[in-house]
Write a structure and sequence with these properties.
It is a single chain. The chain is mainly alpha-helical and 150 residues long. The protein has one domain. It contains 6 helices and 3 strands, in the order αβαααβααβ. A 3-stranded antiparallel sheet has the order 1-3-2. The longest helix has 27 residues, at 22-48. The two termini are 16 Å apart.
């Protein structure tokens, strides 16, 4: 029994963390741009079914698509749909098993939005492939695979 629990501990310790490079992150961002277009199309189709759509509903849709999609998905699910498709995730640098908090996801998004592709330039020079927006928000993007299946 004691030997079996030690084997389980050993397999937990042999978790290999892989840090995605710039191209994987760019592919996730491009995928997210298609996701946002799909959201816009879906919202347009839904709104077209009604004669009168309140301005507040249009504003709420706009805010979700352009300002809340990234931070909400990042804080709730560990990444956007593009991240999920690329099998990468955004986690806390201090506790890689946990998602980042929503306020930090908002800050991360704002910095990423304003710096754009410039933010990704530091990925190449950082040991853990951190972008500027990751450094500011205390986040890390990673793949996680087990080296030994238990």
């Amino acid at each position: 029994m004691k030997e079996e629990s030690q084997d389980q501990l050993d397999s937990i310790e042999r978790v290999e963390i892989l840090y995605p490079g710039v191209f994987e992150r760019i592919k996730a961002a491009v995928t997210d741009s298609f996701v946002l277009i799909a959201f816009m199309l879906i919202l347009t189709i839904i709104f077209s079914k009604f004669q009168h759509v309140p301005d507040s509903a249009r504003i709420a849709g706009f805010i979700f698509i352009f300002f809340l999609y990234d931070p909400l998905f990042t804080s709730l699910f560990g990444g956007t749909i593009g991240h999920m498709i690329m099998k990468i995730q955004v986690k806390r640098i201090s506790i890689p098993e946990k998602n980042i908090f929503f306020p930090l996801a908002v800050i991360r998004f704002i910095v990423k939005f304003f710096l754009g592709w410039i933010s990704l330039l530091t990925v190449l020079s950082s040991e853990k492939h951190l972008a500027i927006h990751d450094m500011i928000a205390g986040s890390i993007v990673l793949h996680r695979t087990k080296s030994v299946e238990g």
